[in-house]
Amino acid sequence: MLDIRFIRDNADVVQKAANDKGYDISIAALLQLDDDRRGLQQQVDTLREKRNANAARMKGGKPEQSVIDEGKQIKLELAERESYLYTADTEFMNLLSQVPNIIFEDVPLGGEEDSVEVKQVGERTTGAKDHLDFATERGWLDFERGAKVAGAKFYFLKGDLALLENAIYQYALDFVLKKGFTYMTVPHLVNSRTAEGAGFAPRSNDQEDQYFIEGQDLSLIGTAEAPLTGYHADEIIDEDELPKLYVGYSPSYRKEAGTYGKHARGLFRVHQFNKLEMYAFTLPEKSKEMHDTILAIEEELWQSLGIPYHVINIAAGDLGAPAAKKYDIEYWSPVDEKYRELTSCSNCTDFQARNLNIRVRRKDGSIEVLHTLNGTAVSLARSLVTILEHYQTTDGKLRVPKVLMPYLNNREVL
């Protein structure tokens, strides 16, 4: 969440950012609640002082009836005001938690279609067979039995395609580890504090993307970003220990709510897939530099795999609550003859860290909220789509990208 002091001093900026991101929230109403609760807090503090003074007067003998009556009246008034304060605090925190992060000045305004291309890399080819048809014909992919076992948009990977997924994962992990990241496996479920702290709150009920465990304060993760964000909750990290760079591997579970009309064929948009996620805790003044670093790692990884792509600066209306800025890498699809989403990386500034009370202790002893960033190394279902589209041959074979060969017993063709 945002610092209420920042909101008080920058109400117009925060309101505009919320509007630009598509959030229906009134900052004026929030600030009125803030005034109300602060006024009530002053009343409560005053009554508590009176209660303490009255209690002191009752010591050392039998108090006068007027003192006793005054104590009873203070107790009644205090209970009433504490009740009002609790309600005001609850309403205030509920509204504050709905305020999205502000955006950087270079974020384009508008919706998804208004995102701005930053660069193009690689040759755009055409004429490939759709990945679903190609993989199904080879007996590598089975959505029919996935639906029988779990429901629509669940699937089995078989044989060489399952081995290819593992090869992509192992290669990407080795690649990122060489960049200084520490490998972590993570819980596949998180509690509501962690999920909400990481910023996974939808704009509306029809966009709720999480699977919840009935009767428990747990939900299945949509990305390793959520548990990685919570890893240092309620901790103070010394300045010289930053940045902390982690890479987490996990399944990702998503209802894919709110995605009507988006490309969803085959493996491109499914309810469960594996993902390798980079995550950084860093000093506030270093977060923009770290954002560029994570993007550069993603680009270098996909260049090494020989995949054409472009980078886009995501428009405000498609950012979501935590991000101040986000880049997407979209690969060129020779099947659809357009770019399709492959990875993303976001700078969430202090938004997530403030939610989960993650701070840095400066060398001078001062303490402040640090910054967090995240970026996809590989989202494996979409990575498979990309490789299948770009490395298939006319005789129904699949060439193995050179960098993946060591992870597939040096096979050149599948």
Detailed description of the structure:
By secondary structure, the protein is α+β, with helices and mostly antiparallel strands. The protein has two domains: 4-96, Serine-tRNA synthetase, tRNA binding domain (Helix Hairpins), CATH 1.10.287; 112-408, 2-Layer Sandwich (BirA Bifunctional Protein, domain 2). The chain is built from twelve helices and 15 strands. The chain has helices at 4-9, 11-21, 27-57, 65-96, 131-137, 143-149, 159-177, 192-197, 225-230, 287-304, 351-355, 380-391; strands at residues 116-121, 141-142, 156-157, 182-185, 189-190, 219-220, 236-238, 244-253, 272-282, 309-313, 325-333, 338-347, 359-361, 367-369, 371-379. Strands 1-10-11-12-15-9-8-4 form an eight-stranded mixed sheet. The protein has a three-stranded mixed sheet with strand order 7-13-14, with no helix packed on it. Strands 2-3 form a two-stranded antiparallel sheet. A hairpin with a 4-residue loop joins strand 11 and strand 12 (338-347). Helix 5 (131-137) packs across helix 12 and helix 7 crosses helix 12 (380-391). The two termini are 48 Å apart.
